[in-house]
């Protein structure tokens, strides 16, 4: 390490200032004085050759350069944690530690439980933290890129520089409607917000029978509940309707429906971790079994 390299302490300060939105709160979190935090940020800015935080009455906010630096800092610190855990595993023959997974709601509900149960049998002392992240804007890929998650279960394509993305399965969108309704396509449409492919948006735009959304929501679980209460119909991925109540029925969208492609995203460095690779292996195996069965 040269004098121009950021130290682990400086990396931790950058992350704390960004997450706490200020120097004072970061100092409390890290058990440092505010002057020590200010000194560390100034040192990092000098080494990086740019301003990383805008200071003001309302605290500190990262500049564009600062946001990029904090994302790298989180990932570097995380790799240091992984290095310690895997060094311990090689020495003691026992793998410990934590893997942080970000996933959209239906994947967290319907894919991860079986996968994590299998994984836990192989790695009983590894904790997997799961956080549900909406697939909106930068979505799950953004969480991984920013160093807040080690592995993401995301809607593809998520082509983000610095990340590796691989397909797990593809599923059709279907029409969900109140069971027993004689003409589901005549119902008001419940619209929900989700990142989707350009092909799906094009397909939806070509469908003259789809009215503008009368109800707007941000969660597909809420959509299913509203459909069940007869408030309208909705176009959702098939996985959303797993374990839907009997009062919610499903109709195919023709012979060539739009498809949602689901995969995992991670940094290449994190995929170098044996335990992360094994979790991905369990995920791939389960998806191959499950979606081969349903076609």
TrEMBL record:
Q: Domain of life of the organism in this record?
A: Bacteria
Boundaries of every HTH lysR-type domain copy: 6-63
Tell me where the transmembrane regions lie: none
- The region annotated as signal peptide is none
Keyword Secreted annotated: no
For this protein, the record's InterPro entries field holds: LysR_HTH_N (IPR000847), LysR_subst-bd (IPR005119), WH-like_DNA-bd_sf (IPR036388), WH_DNA-bd_sf (IPR036390)
Q: Which UniProt keywords apply?
A: DNA-binding, Transcription, Transcription regulation
One Pfam family, short name: LysR_substrate
Its family remark reads: Belongs to the LysR transcriptional regulatory family.
Name of the protein in its database record? LysR family transcriptional regulator
Record organism: Streptosporangium jomthongense
């Amino acid at each position: 390490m040269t004098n121009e390299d950021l130290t682990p302490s400086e990396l931790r300060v950058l992350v704390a200032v960004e997450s706490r939105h200020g120097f004072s709160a970061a100092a409390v979190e890290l058990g440092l004085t505010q002057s020590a935090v200010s000194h560390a940020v100034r040192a990092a800015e000098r080494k990086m050759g740019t301003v990383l935080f805008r200071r003001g009455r309302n605290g500190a906010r990262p500049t564009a350069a600062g946001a990029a630096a904090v994302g790298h800092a989180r990932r570097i610190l995380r790799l240091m944690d992984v290095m310690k855990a895997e060094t311990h595993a090689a020495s003691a023959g026992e793998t410990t530690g934590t893997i942080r997974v970000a996933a959209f709601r239906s994947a967290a509900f319907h894919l991860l439980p079986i996968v994590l149960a299998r994984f836990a049998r192989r790695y009983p002392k590894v904790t997997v933290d799961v956080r549900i992240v909406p697939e909106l804007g930068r979505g799950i890929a953004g969480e991984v890129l920013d160093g807040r998650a080690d592995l993401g279960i995301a809607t593809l394509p998520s082509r983000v520089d610095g990340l590796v993305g691989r397909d797990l399965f593809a599923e059709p969108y279907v029409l969900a409607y109140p069971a027993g309704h004689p003409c589901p396509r005549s119902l008001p449409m419940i619209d929900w917000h989700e990142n989707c492919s350009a092909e799906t948006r094009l397909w939806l735009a070509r469908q003259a029978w789809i009215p503008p959304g009368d109800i707007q929501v941000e969660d597909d679980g809420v959509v299913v509940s509203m459909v069940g209460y007869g408030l309208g119909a909705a176009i959702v991925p098939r996985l959303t309707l797993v374990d839907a109540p009997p009062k919610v029925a499903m109709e195919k969208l023709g012979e060539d429906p739009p498809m949602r492609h689901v995969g995992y995203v991670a940094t290449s460095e994190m995929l170098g971790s044996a335990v992360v690779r094994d979790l991905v292996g369990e995920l791939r195996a389960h998806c191959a079994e499950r979606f081969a069965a349903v076609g």
